[in-house]
């Protein structure tokens, strides 16, 4: 699973945040590494240099092999919190999406009435 990290110009501490984001993604989403080819992380400060509540935003997008991308966002008071929140949301979304695919694969086809003769 490849991890791509991006920030806007208003985000400070890019290298430390990048390490934190990679650690969180590996810890929270590591079990999906067979299905997820890439996770893109985009960090931004919603209102720039102004101080505000829940103004740090993290968008995470998972590229699932053979499927449409799954994207989530989280806003929090700090970028670390936004990263953690987005990772948890993405985990739940992937659980749901990939869980449904797994159920579909495991469920045997229902025999038609023609098969019963």
From TrEMBL:
It holds the Pfam family Ribosomal_S30AE. This is Ribosomal subunit interface protein. Coiled coil: none annotated. Residues 94-117 are annotated as: Disordered. It comes from the Bacteria.
């Amino acid at each position: 699973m490849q991890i791509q990290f991006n920030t806007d110009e208003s985000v400070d501490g890019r290298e430390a945040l990048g390490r934190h984001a990679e650690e969180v993604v590996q810890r929270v989403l590591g079990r999906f590494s067979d299905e997820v080819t890439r996770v893109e992380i985009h960090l931004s400060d919603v209102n720039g240099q102004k101080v505000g509540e829940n103004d740090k935003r993290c968008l995470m997008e998972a590229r699932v092999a053979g499927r449409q991308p799954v994207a989530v966002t989280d806003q929090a008071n700090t970028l670390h919190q936004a990263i953690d929140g987005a990772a948890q949301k993405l985990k739940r979304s992937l659980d749901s999406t990939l869980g449904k695919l797994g159920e579909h694969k495991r469920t045997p086809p229902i025999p038609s009435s023609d098969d019963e003769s």
